[in-house]
Amino acid sequence: MGMTKNKQIKKRIFEIIQIGSREDMSSRIGDFVIVTSILLNIVVLFLGTFEELSRYFKIFKFIETTTILIFCLEYALRIWTAEYIYTDVGKWRARFKFIVSAEGIIDLLTILPFFFLYGFAAFRMLRVVRILHLFRLNMNYDSFNVITSVLIEKKNQIASSIFIIVVLMLASSLCIYGAEHDAQPEAFKNAFSGIWWSLSTIFTVGYGDIYPITAAGKIMGVMITFLGVGTVAIPTGIISAGFVENYTEMQRNRLNEAKNKTTGSITIEKKSEDIGKLISELEKKYGVNIVVILRDGVMVLADVNVRAKCGDTLIYREIP
């Protein structure tokens, strides 16, 4: 009986910290506490760099310590409930897989600097990676998943455009060195000295700490600025166009499939054993192909790595 109660508690904690649901007040409170802690931790980290606020440093320290303790508790609970994430392996192996996963490493990096590297500002900034966990709230929605798909699908085009930018940056640094070295030997000591200037020019940052003074250098600066605007726009255009294209296509295909081929639906009730299970696991369990998920009034693509939440309606079609 004790073991059953313990498992129920563990499963409930997993649902709160990993699954979440708008209908579940505990999950909403948990999400609010974590997100608030993330934002407070980062705000305090920045405010702590202002000498004018030194009289508040003790308050900042208290807030920082409190949020870190919350992060430690969350990290420990995620390790404890990892067996519900990695259901295909044993309890201890599941915990190890979570610790070495990207999410587990990010969690660890946000905690360790506070305890062991407090005196090193560069290491303390590692805690800013905690902001990446804000994406956790959107991980199960189409718009978030499509971004990853676009980056993978368009990786060759993106790599090519980045290569063009690097070549342009190296070429412009060599050219500006040739044009400005004699006039500004201190500013442009060698070809590598021009990399900083070429980078700020290509990306139109305009720091102004290093700039050409010769006629040839100024003409070159104008040309590189125009080339930079067009070159930098290439990867941006690839990603934005790919996002719109993929998202539109996925929505159209899924909606058409849901309309024409669905044969039924499954509603995940509050005490259902299906809460927290992967879509792939539910498809295997019921012998169906889950097409889309109706979640919180939003239609979500039924990716195999999405986990079922309380209140979800799984629209499926039977497998012949």
TrEMBL record:
The lineage of its organism: Bacteria, Bacillati, Bacillota, Clostridia, Lachnospirales. GO terms for biological process: action potential. It is a multi-pass membrane protein. It is found in: Membrane. GO terms for cellular component: voltage-gated potassium channel complex. The keyword Transmembrane applies. The keyword Ribosomal protein does not apply. Residues 30-248 form the Ion transport domain. It comes from the Bacteria. Pfam families: Ion_trans. GO terms for molecular function: voltage-gated potassium channel activity. Keywords: Ion channel, Ion transport, Membrane, Potassium, Potassium channel, Potassium transport, Transmembrane, Transmembrane helix, Transport, Voltage-gated channel. This is Transporter, cation channel family protein.
